[in-house]
Amino acid sequence: MPNISWDAADYKENFSFVPAYGEAVIDLITKQPESRVIDLGCGNGSLTAHIAERGYIVTGIDDSEEMLRLARKEHPDLSFLQGNAVSFHLEKGVDVIFSNAVFHWIDEKNQQTMLSNIYRNLNPGGELVCEFGGSGCAEAVHETLEQCFSERGLVYRRVFYFPTIGQYAPMLEKAGFKIEYAALFDRPTPQNGSDGLANWIRMFVKKPFEGVEKELEEEIISDTVSRLRNRLYQNDFWIVDYVRIQFRAVKQQNL
């Protein structure tokens, strides 16, 4: 299960860069149009629609009812199902399982189970095409938050899973995949508006603040933003130090 709940409207308004960057990940798919594709963790359906525009028969799957409501409203001609990456089940295998900016929200202990489940839901020769946060993703922000928590006698929980290629590739192989493509790269990512970093923290760093009083939460966010201004505020934009990891892996045979 993903370790976050979403504000679908805020996500659409202020964080549209997530699906926007994901459009390039679609290019990693090698299957021909008319192939059956699952957009796993489809969110508001933006990328699902782009996949459909390329001629694929696509279904979006997401664990968030709020996101699915928005997806169905904005893309009524597409199919969407509720399910999570670890346990979703398809009646019939598909040719591609595509996922953008999802896997880092899955607890590390569930990653192998998730990959095995994806493998089961693919046809032989089917592709897993994915991008998510890689080692070092947003480390400047997480490190500073960790310092601010510690100075107030609190523990900052690192709930995100950001692996290296060397850590993740063996997990894919253990699940039965042959890796055809892998990349790890920096992607400094601009945020919207003068409060871009604070809004990013409020949207994406929810779990570590559970149990923290709202006033203290805002104090920590403000302190973090202040400490990072010289480092991450560039040319009138906040930049978050994203690192991304990409894979295309092929199902070789049934286990």
From TrEMBL:
It comes from the Bacteria. Coiled coil: none annotated. Keywords: Methyltransferase, Transferase. It comes from Acetatifactor muris. One of its GO terms (biological process) is methylation. The lineage of its organism: Bacteria, Bacillati, Bacillota, Clostridia, Lachnospirales. InterPro entries: Methyltransf_25 (IPR041698), SAM-dependent_MTases_sf (IPR029063). SUPFAM superfamilies: S-adenosyl-L-methionine-dependent methyltransferases. This is Trans-aconitate 2-methyltransferase. The keyword Transferase applies. Transmembrane segments: none annotated. Pfam families: Methyltransf_25 (PF13649). One of its GO terms (molecular function) is trans-aconitate 2-methyltransferase activity. Its EC number is 2.1.1.144. Residues 37-126 form the Methyltransferase domain. It is an enzyme of class 2 (transferase).
